[in-house]
Amino acid sequence: MAESTGMREIFVTGLKNAHAMENQALSIMKPQVSRIENYPEVAARLEQHVRETEGQMARIDDLLQELDKGPSSLKDMALALTGGMAAVGHSVAGDEILKNSFANYAFEHFEIASYKSLLTLAELGGFSFATSALQTNLREEEQMAQWIDENLRTVTLRFASLREAGETAKV
């Protein structure tokens, strides 16, 4: 299908939503990283994903610029606020590291679905210039989701061990 005004609008909206989504991801991950003490492997992987997420936002910025558009400041701000509230909400839980792991796993899959949808829209609308950047973002999200999945047992065992020993197990 050739590029149409309607398809362009749908694609631009999707890119703006993805930018805000990644901004939300940063507002969730950065507070988590700053609080982690007993799970260095989780902190290291989150720090790596923060850098990846910053790169994802830059790629989305480039795509929006290619379309003579920019991110939505309102969406970015609103989703960053909700992400920050989620991070604060988990910080008071006795099992914060587990709640963060569950939420991060779910959020990664939300991002995966978003990028798969954007790739479909890029194909449908003839926005082939966007495919490589979107595939890179998708691959990074899939790798992060896989890492969380592969490490959930280890994090849970460490949490239980620390809790049983009477040590701080939250983060």
Task: Give a verbal description of the structure.
This protein is an all-alpha fold and 171 residues long. The chain has one domain: Ferritin, core subunit, four-helix bundle (Ferritin, Up-down Bundle), CATH 1.20.1260. The protein is built from 5 helices and no strands. It has helices spanning 5-35, 40-66, 73-91, 96-125, 131-164. Helix 4 packs antiparallel against helix 5 (131-164). The termini are far apart. The mean pLDDT is 88.
Mean pLDDT: 88
How many separate helices?
Answer: 5
- Number of domain units: 1
Q: Which sheet architecture does the biggest sheet show? A: none
| Rough outline | elongated
Q: What's the count of strands?
A: 0
| CATH architecture annotation | Up-down Bundle
Beta-strand content? under 5%
SSE run: HHHHH
- What's the CATH topology label? Ferritin
Q: Regions with pLDDT < 50 over 5+ consecutive residues?
A: none
The N- to C-terminal Cα distance equals: 50 Å
Q: CATH superfamily, please? A: Ferritin, core subunit, four-helix bundle
Helices and strands: which structural class? Answer: mainly alpha
- Give the fraction of residues assigned to helices: over 70%
CATH class: Mainly Alpha
The gyration radius over C-alpha positions equals 18 Å
